[in-house]
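User: I'm putting together a teaching handout on how sequence relates to shape, and I'd like one worked example. Could you take ABC-type branched-chain amino acid transport system, permease component from Cylindrospermum stagnale PCC 7417, show the sequence you're using, and then write out its predicted structure as tokens right after it?

Assistant: Happy to. First the sequence, then the structure tokens directly below it.
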Amino acid sequence: MVDYLIFLAISTAIFALFGLGLNLQWGFTGLINFGHIAFMTLGAYTTVLLSLKGVPLLLSAMIGAIVAAILGLVIGLATLRLREDYLSIVTVGVGELIRLVVNNQELPVGDTWIAGAFGVQSYTIPLSTTPNLFVRLVMIGLLTLLMLITCFCLWRWVGPSRLSPNAEAKIRYKIESTSRLIVGLIFGILATAIYVSGVIGLYNYNPKAGLMLLVLLVLAFVFWRLQILVRSPWGRVLKAIREDEEIPKAMGKNVFWYKVQSLMLGGAIAGVAGAFFAWQLSAIYPDNFQPQLTFDAWIMVILGGSGNNIGTLLGAVIYFAYDAITREVLPKIVPLDEARLGAFRVMVIGLILMVLMIWRPQGILGKKEELTLGK
């Protein structure tokens, strides 16, 4: 059970990172990116291939993020001066193009070249060797600190909302406070379960527990910096571009360059997620990077609420909780074979999305005035 919770925590954190990059591009800037997986693919393969050449893992991951950002620059320069739908069409093509190139080209693995379709295995993974007791206690201390910061942030976030004391505001306050309380409780319970599993996994050292700590620390850092960025003047310009780019243009802002920056930064975050995805899998193949992963990220962002980073985290948690529960429970309830059961699970999450779009199109934590769907 502990190992499974650690696996779920790693998967959720990786796709929360992946979703945060997409949310920056679409939720805050209004850029429709249907090929987000391209950035993850470049980040994963760059990190792995460089590490096999002896480049330190941290530097490999940073270079992978830079390569993904450069892809964002190339896509932006090629499409962002055109109509918005060109970006969505190009990104779909780029995502598949990169996967097919990797699949059909020979890759430099160590001192030899192998066909991309055979995948890449036996590469170095962070924190794979068992550390001594002191280092393990330090890692547990870091996890504890992260847990305390998470609880403090949840307590502040669930706290009273500042609304004007009229009747409409009171209704909004009740709805908002109730939804925040429920979400806070969900996050709190899951954080506690992950914390306990992490402490056990780190003390009786499990390399996956070390990877879990590392990805959670990176996720916390990226989330913190993104929150600061989107509340800064730079972030406000992105929101203005999302609403009506003619307004920031009239104010003298270089709208094109802001869009490119958003595409590059979102791509870099997805590249970091790709490095962790490769480390989690321990062996990567082109088929690990199917277009479906992009639409999984879209589901997470839409569920949680576009233009809301906490909503993206919530969407990732809900998605993987649904995935884990249905994998374990549905076979005992629904008498279907494995192939049909997989299709049924996809059908159910599609139905959930349809209901959500009717009941709350802005997502669970999204704001209706910041809705980007249909724009």
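A couple of points you could highlight for students: The chain has two domains: 1-130+209-289, 131-204. Residues 1-130+209-289 form one domain.
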